[in-house]
Specification:
mainly alpha
Length: about 170
């Protein structure tokens, strides 16, 4: 896949999937109406929304530049994406989406968004576990298994992984 095609596809998928999950549904649930409450929590919420958005965009860029594809299962990457944020954690996009939703919960003071974030996180975990891991194993074989054994799925490493690193023993 050419980079410009991957960029268009990834942009469309970014607007469709994370845009719906972290934008449209929270709006449906809250109408963006918040409660006046503890200002530091609102500041932290804004930081989570901003940080999660930056991580999400960086992860999508990695799919275009490094993977020559999109995060969408219908137009997967040609190469395994293991650079950038993926050197620290295998699922930065999912973590970013949950961070954005939790940030909105803090920003607006809305418990319904915390519950929604838990549901979204559980669904993402299930999708990653039961669809993505087997699909990536079939597509990339030993390369993915080596990466998977060295980079955690949900809790980032403190140091970046490189392909030269030995596999994890734990």
């Amino acid at each position: 896949m050419q980079r410009n095609v991957a960029a268009v596809g990834s942009s469309a998928f970014l607007a469709l999937a994370p845009g719906t999950v972290a934008g449209l549904v929270p709006w449906w649930l809250t109408g963006w109406h918040g409660h006046a409450w503890w200002p530091p929590a609102r500041v932290f919420g804004g930081a989570f929304v901003l940080g999660g958005g930056v991580v999400l965009v960086q992860a999508f860029i990695s799919f275009v530049v490094e993977g020559l594809g999109t995060p969408a299962p219908v137009a997967p990457t040609e190469h395994l994406v293991v650079g950038g944020l993926y050197r620290y954690v295998r699922n930065p996009m999912y973590l970013a989406v949950v961070a954005v939703i939790l940030g909105q919960a803090l920003l607006l003071g809305r418990l319904v968004l915390v519950v929604y974030a838990v549901v979204v996180g559980a669904l993402m975990w299930a999708f990653a576990t039961w669809y993505e891991v087997p699909a990536l194993t079939r597509q990339f074989g030993e390369e993915y298994q080596r990466y998977r054994s060295a980079v955690p799925g949900w809790w980032p490493r403190l140091t970046p992984w490189t392909a030269a690193d030995p596999p994890s023993t734990g």
